[in-house]
Design brief:
This protein is α/β, with parallel strands linked by helices. The chain has a domain of 79 residues: Ribosomal protein L13 (Ribosomal Protein L13p, Chain: A). Helices cover 34% and strands 19% of the residues. It is built from five helices and five strands; from the N terminus they run E-H-E-H-E-E-H-H-H-E. It has a three-stranded parallel sheet. A two-stranded antiparallel sheet has the order 3-4. Strand 1, helix 1 and strand 2 form a beta-alpha-beta unit. One of its GO terms (biological process) is negative regulation of translation.
Length: 122
């Protein structure tokens, strides 16, 4: 019962969090009338122009992404602005991942998310 349709989103001038909510809803299959939380039936979701995503307020300077390397003193912090300069797909992937349920289906759902920095691929 897997549906292999592909949905396409253009991220130009869309707010990061609101776009992530839309994508997470589709990846979970909640947009379908036959939704079952234990069944994986998500379509592929492609997002184009992630370099043109907007954020509201002062999140570019204030939002922090943190991770620990595992070594003493290994807490690394990076602002949203630096993440967007490096690769804008990381910010969107992180936002969508945080909105999906933390269970065994999350990695399978994330495999159906395809992100492109530039325009739509033919």
């Amino acid at each position: 019962m897997t549906s292999m349709t592909e949905l396409k989103f253009d991220a130009t001038n869309k707010v990061l969090g609101r776009l992530a909510v839309e994508i997470a809803t589709i990846l979970q299959g909640k947009d379908k009338p036959q939704f079952d939380p234990a069944v994986f039936s998500a379509p592929k979701v492609s997002v184009y122009n992630t370099d043109h995503i907007r954020v509201t307020g002062r999140k570019h300077e204030q939002k922090q992404y943190r991770h620990h390397t595992g070594y003493p003193g290994g807490l690394k912090e990076e602002t949203l602005e630096r993440v967007m300069e490096r690769d804008s797909r990381i910010a969107l992937r992180h936002a969508v991942m945080g909105m999906l349920p933390k269970n065994r289906l999350r990695p399978r759902m994330m495999k159906n998310l395809i992100l492109y920095k530039g325009p739509e691929r033919q």
